[in-house]
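--- STAGE predict ---
source: upstream dedup step, 1 unique chain passed
mode: sequence only
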Amino acid sequence: MNVAYWIVAGLLALFHLYSGGLKLVRGRERLRPMMAWVDSTPMPAVRAIGAVEVLGAAGLLLPPLTGVAPWLAPAAAVGFVVLQIGATGVHLRLGDRRVGLNLTLALAAAVSGRLATTWL
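--- STAGE serialize ---
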């Protein structure tokens, strides 16, 4: 189970570090080609989502690595499930039916959260 957690959580953390980092440093014009929803969202909210993604990725990796506050790993995973449910809603509200990635990320986060409970 430990190896499975590191594979799922590691991939999930890498994805969110990348996408969250982009939201933190890029402007609306550079985000628009891959994230059409940024046009209907204020940039402070986009930046906040990016920060949540980066912090959540740290929450998936650092507590198990350090042994400090290991309950943060499943909490971060639940947070990513909630984030992806919200992202799916935004896509559907804007008429974008391509939500497969969001649903896959939500599933990966749920699996990661379940696997994280094995050491609590």
